[in-house]
């Protein structure tokens, strides 16, 4: 019997991930069988509840598979000796089990952080659409319009956060739902192992049979990996046919991923494509506020603006910067102030103010398009200057703290609605026009130097 349990533990490790395995599965012992039931010994009640709730199904399935029989599974709690069946009625208890709550960092879904949720995702114009699409997929998984959901955009712009949020939201609503999250790299490695150790049936169970929703992060990694792409294609077909939800992320659009099989590309494109853009100043400040609140760090609006301005849309570095600030405040027992921030963040934030000004931006845009600054700033409606002008307005809006009326003044005294409209238009176009996106990114790189 011990061999059976070791084998089952091996599969569970594969199926639930090493982290879950070490915490929850490894400590379980199998007791000598009594009659027809398999008895598993767990350290305490809290433990039993958690394992039963989260891994009961997996344990039972794996045991049945190895034993080739549907034997009942019972847990025995080591500290009381009480027994009860995995899915049997709960005996009355004098002690309330402590229930782990989401956000305490306990593993609920392997690989998914419980603290990346929709609640703490800051929505701005830059990610509004991706956020809405992710919520829609989480609320009605498998619905054709959002299946698959393909979220794309630059690094650190919240793609993985949204993916985890989908998983967590579905789990919160229904704790029986099977969420599988892997990076494309993990998927590849698991496939290689499965092929090497002849465990393909397990691999297919895990990715085709088991999930109600499959989340695959960073699929650009699959570029040129033919065997993995083939497997993913069949995985997709299988899940899709059965109405299961699939979500992908990548740093670019499917058609911009080099060496992606056409049939996989068309599948990726067949549902909803949603992008995440770098946050504008307001959203950046809001994200900063959210993160500092989570970290119980109180920042003045002035300090928030200062940090956000220096990070220039780089959300990924934000947490590091805030951690550093928090450590400095604790260590030196000081209040967070601009002075303290200047002093202690010097090494990680650009020292000199890097905030761009409108003139610099307009100049760069003009030289990129080979136009005169006066034409870009001016009011003539020539076709060849209108687009560059809108791009310039958009970039000024995103990279400076100027308001719409301020920008209107810079551009020959236009009213704020014109500027607002131009910015909105560019933002919308960036979602679907890869050429424009390239242009804007190139200009941004020229600006940052
Ligand atoms: P990506 O997967 O697009 O590279 P991540 O989802 O890993 O980016 O985001 C990087 C970090 O920034 C994470 O800590 C994430 O929580 C945070 N983040 C990004 N966008 C937002 C947002 N809109 N609201 C809150 N946090 C965000
Ligand atoms: Mg990511």
How would you explain this protein's 3D organization?
With 449 residues, this protein is α/β, with parallel strands linked by helices. 54% of the residues lie in helices and 10% in strands. The chain is built from 19 helices and 9 strands. The protein has a 5-stranded parallel sheet, with helices on both faces. β7 (213-217), α8 and β8 (245-250) form a beta-alpha-beta unit. α6 packs antiparallel against α7, α7 (200-209) packs across α8 and α17 (404-410) packs across α18 (416-432). The longest helix is centred in the N-terminal third of the chain and has 23 residues, at 45-67. The protein starts with a helix and ends with a helix. Bound molecules: adenosine-5'-diphosphate and magnesium ion. The site of adenosine-5'-diphosphate (ADP) has 17 residues, from α5, α10 and α12. The site of magnesium ion has 4 residues, from α5.
Give structural attributes.
Rossmann fold; Helicase, Ruva Protein, domain 3; GMP Synthetase, Chain A, domain 3; binds adenosine-5'-diphosphate; alpha/beta; four-stranded mixed β-sheet; binds magnesium ion; 449 residues
Please write out the topology.
Blueprint: H1 2-16, H2 18-25, E1 29-34, E2 37-42, H3 45-67, E3 73-77, E4 83-85, H4 128-139, E5 149-153, H5 159-173, E6 179-183, H6 184-196, H7 200-209, E7 213-217, H8 226-241, E8 245-250, H9 262-269, E9 272-276, H10 281-294, H11 301-311, H12 315-332, H13 338-344, H14 358-369, H15 373-377, H16 383-399, H17 404-410, H18 416-432, H19 434-448
Parallel strand pairs: 2-3, 5-8, 5-9, 6-7, 7-8
Antiparallel strand pairs: 1-2, 3-4
Helix pairs in contact: 1-2, 1-3, 4-5, 6-7, 7-8, 10-11, 10-12, 14-16, 16-18, 17-18
The chain binds adenosine-5'-diphosphate (ADP) and magnesium ion.
